[in-house]
Amino acid sequence: DGGITQSPKYLFRKEGQNVTLSCEQNLNHDAMYWYRQDPGQGLRLIYYSQIVNDFQKGDIAEGYSVSREKKESFPLTVTSAQKNPTAFYLCASSIVPTLPYNEQFFGPGTRLTVL
Amino acid sequence: GENVEQHPSTLSVQEGDSAVIKCTYSDSASNYFPWYKQELGKRPQLIIDIRSNVGEKKDQRIAVTLNKTAKHFSLHITETQPEDSAVYFCAGHNAGNMLTFGGGTRLMVKP
How distant is the Cα of B102 from the closest Cα of chain A, in angstroms? Predict the structure, then answer.
């Protein structure tokens, strides 16, 4: 299960607080992604980055922010503007997004709970 | 953008029976369709995928079929075992180089 890691595994937040979820990969992948998973639902794309210092909004970017200062790291900040942040957050990476048939490798996830 | 729908949302089968999960997609430019398996509390992992120039692909007890004309693809699991119990996600990889996931199917294999 090595290669892409996320921390912490569990995170509790009070309403009104910003929190940052960590995602690190040592696979030398160019592309990284953040997904949100709600109980009984599929994966929804929050943000993605195809190259260092560049990132794009996904389908549900409101209330979230990211940075990509290093190839290995793609942290996600859940801001107080996110109305319903309690969910399971998955980070993923893939080799080169411009090539077809790119498998995405997932991290173990962070379960965020707002108290 | 791409829209991927997956059915059924839950599926219960007896051990040894076959299981079939179906997905439809909307973007005719989609060219790659992976299937991921997610066990309880764990990360999704790729189990099989198919490219748009292929109609069927098999890997032991798992097979995937693709009908480009109808824009649907299916996962077939034969001789199901209790360890097949998990949530399965289909996805479509479109011209925008993004994966759009279906809503998932919870498969329960009863011993």
Answer: 6
* pLDDT tens-digit profile, chain A (115 residues): 459 999 999 999 998 899 999 999 999 999 999 999 998 788 999 999 999 999 999 999 999 999 999 999 999 999 988 889 999 999 999 987 666 677 899 999 999 999 8
CA angle, B62 as apex, B56 and B68 as ends, to 5°?
25
CB contact under 8 Å between B34 and A1, yes or no, is no
Strand B19-25 and strand B4-7: pairing?
antiparallel
Q: How many cross-chain Cβ pairs, A to B, lie less than 8 Å apart?
A: 54
Average pLDDT over chain B, rounded to an integer: 93
Average pLDDT of the segment spanning B81-110? 91
Mutation target vs A (from B36, B53, B97; most A CBs, 10 A cutoff): B97
CB burial of B75-96 (b: ≥16 within 10 Å; e: otherwise) equals: bbbeebeeebbbbbbbbbbbee
Q: How far apart are the C-alpha atoms of A13 and B57, rounded to whole Å?
A: 45
Which residues sit opposite B100 in a β-bridge? B92
- Chain A residues with CB under 8 Å of B45 CB are 106
Contacts with B, A 43-72, CB within 8 Å: 43-45, 48, 50, 58-59
d(CA B50, CA B79): 21
Q: Are the C-beta atoms of residues A45 and A5 closer than 8 Å to each other? A: no
